[in-house]
Write the structure tokens for this entry.
Amino acid sequence: MSRYDTTQAVNAYMVYQLPLGRGRKFGSSMSKPLDAIVGGWETSGTYRQTSGLPFSAGDGSRWATNWQLSSFATPSGVALPPIVNSTNAPAVSGSAGPNLWANPTTALASFQETLAGQTGSRDAMRGSGFFNIDSGLYKNFTMPWSEKQRLQFRWESYNVSNSVRFDPASASLSLTSTANFGKLSSQLGTPRQMQFALRFTF
């Protein structure tokens, strides 16, 4: 299984022009001053969500087979605690920041050092997947001197819901890093951002 495997992925995109204003279904004969206020509006949106991304625990600075390549850790038989896939991964006492597990000590005990000649367990766990909603709101103004020229005001928002999904690949998953095992250090995507722009078409 690849590190970027996404078993399920949902993508959607839409653009909608409000049917109000000059030349539209409603108010097609309204005056130009009124059209400059209520006409020419459109909106857009994108939606993307994927299933959880795979990750592995590693032996750290130990080399079961090849001196230059560390092995993946091997399950020890101790039941692995549930992986926190929600947007509110817990901050664990003694390890600042969010963690993959509410009980990283038990998670650490679920793995053991891989023996010589073995490779361990690769990408057998899955963390959070990607989730994002973007939106756009646009207002089109027809220039009074020519209907072929337009000015568009654009308000675009990224990650509208300001959702936080932690990247499982950023977790500290080395058996030699016991104090920080499972600690997450980065997110999938970015916090909410907005931008404003003007576009002149001629």
Q: What stands out?
A: The chain has a mean pLDDT of 86. The longest strand covers residues 131-143.
